[in-house]
Design brief:
Layout: H1 2-20, E1 26-28, E2 45-47, E3 54-58, E4 63-66, H2 72-80, E5 84-85, H3 97-102, H4 110-113, E6 120-126, E7 132-136, H5 141-147, E8 156-163, E9 165-166, E10 170-178, H6 181-192, E11 199-206, E12 209-218, H7 238-246, E13 253-258, H8 259-263, H9 274-281, H10 287-292, H11 299-309, E14 315-323, H12 324-337, E15 343-348, E16 373-381, H13 386-402, E17 406-407, H14 417-423, H15 426-435, H16 444-448, H17 452-459, H18 463-467, H19 473-485, H20 488-493
Parallel strand pairs: 1-2
Antiparallel strand pairs: 3-4, 4-8, 5-9, 6-7, 6-8, 10-12, 10-13, 11-12, 11-15, 14-16, 14-17, 15-16
Length: 506
Amino acid sequence: MQNHRHVVEKIAASIQHYFRRREPFRIYHGSTNSTRQTGYRRENAVDISALSQILKIDAKARTALVEPNVPMDRLVESTIKHGLVPPVVMEFPGITAGGGFAGTGGESSSFKYGYFNETVNSVEIVLGNGDIVTASDKENPDLFHGASGAVGSLGITTLLEIQLIQAKKYVKVTYHSVRSVPEAVEKVREETSNPELDYVDGILFSKKHGVVVTGCLTDDLPATAQVQRFSDANDPWYYLHVKEKTLWNVEPVTEYIPLAEYLFRYDRGGFWVGASAFEYFRFPFNKFTRWWLDDFLHTRMLYKALHASRQSRNYIVQDLALPYSTVEKFINYTIDSFGIWPLWLCPLRQTRLPTLHPHFPKTEVDSKTLKPMLNVGLWGFGPTQHDRFVAKNRELECKIRELGGMKWLYAHTYYKENEFWEMFDGQWYDGLRRKYNAESLPSVWHKVKLDPDAQRRAVDSSWGTWALQFWPLGGIWGIWKAIESGEYLIARNSTWKARDGPGQGR
C-alpha cells in the first residue's frame, strides 16, 4: 500500500496544479477499449498508467483490492487461485477494473448481478481539486453511485474493492437453438428467470438461426463429458463452434468449459469482429489462416490495430440496450438498415436511477424494481464514405431513442449536447460536479461526443494520416503498430489458459 499511496499522492498533486491554474486536463490510462480515437497529449494529461497492481485478495471476506488498470485476465488469474472469481467479468481480457466501473460493463452474468459497478464495494477517488476521498454506499454514497458510468468526469478512480464469489472448475453450458428473432428474445427472457443459472447470453446468426447460451458453475464433470476450450491457436473460435453445434441440431447441446476459458471465450476473434480483418485484406478465412495468424486475433491486438489503422472511422461498434417490448423491432431495423450478422444478445439487470448507464424508467408490478433490458451488440462494417457513416450512426441514435433504448457510451457518439441531456438527469449530474469540484474536468458529454468536422480536419492534418484511409495502407499500418506494441505476448503467456492449473479453478 505504501507504493500505492505514493503514486496516488503524485496524481493528486498533479491535479491540484491544474485546478489552481484553472486548466483543463485529461486522464491517460495506458490502454483503451473504446473505439473513439483518443486525443492524448502528454502536456495536458494526468498519467495514471502506473496504477496496475492487485494489492490484496481477502479470501475470508471474498474481496479483491485492486488498482484501476488491472485487466480482467490478471484479476481472474489471481482470484481463481483462492477459489474465487468476480461475479461480473468483462469478456475481453484487457478491459480493466477501473474501465468497468467508470464505463458500463454488462456481461452474461449481468441479468443476475447487474453492471460491473454493482459488484464494487468501494472506490478511492481523486477529485477535481486534488482531494483524495473514499466513496461507497456508506461514505459519499452519491459520488459512489454517480461516478459509475461517468467515464471519469467526476474524479479519477485510483482503487477499487471488488466483491468475489465462489469459483467452480467448469461452466456447464447449454446451447438452445432458436429459429426466429421473436423466439430468441422470448427464450432469453425465459432463461433469465431461472434462479439456478449463472450466465445467459445469445447469438443471432441470421433471422432463422440463433442460439441462447445458458451456463451453470459446477465442479462435477461426468465421465463421458468432453471438456471444450477456446484459448489455444488450435481451438475453434467460440462463435463458430456454437454455430456449428447448433446449425442442424434443434435439441439443446450441453458441454463443459473450464471457468476462465468460458469467461474469456470471446477473446480470440473479438466475438466475431476479427473476421472483418480477413474481409478487409481479402484474405481466406478458414481454420488454417486463423491458426497461422492467431497472435493478431486476440482482442488486445485487434484494438491496437483498429486504432492505429483508423478503421474505426467506418466500422460500426455499438452496444444498445432496449426494453424487451421493443427489442424485436430494433433487431428488424438493424437487419434492414445495416445487414450486420451475427448479433449479440445480453440480458441486463438495471441499476437504480438516476444513472449514466443505459436505463429504461419502467418498473415491475411492485412499482420499485426496474424492468430488465436486453442488450444488442451491433458490430460490423458501415459505409466507407464518412458523411454516410456519420448519417447512419445518427439514424441509429434516433431509432434507439424512439424505441426507448440507450446506447453504451464507449463507442461513436454523435448526440448534440441538448439531445444527450434529454436522456440523462443533467441537474443531478451537474449538482455532483459542483459538490465534488469536478467542473474543471471534461463533462461526460465532452468526453464521449465525436465531432465529424474535427475528424475530417484530423484526416487532413498530415499526409500520413490522410494516406491511412486508402486500402490497404491503413490495415498494414495497424498490423505493424500492433506488433510493435508487443501485446501478443500477453495472450501467449497468460496462465489462465493453462490446461492444468489456475485456469481451471479450485
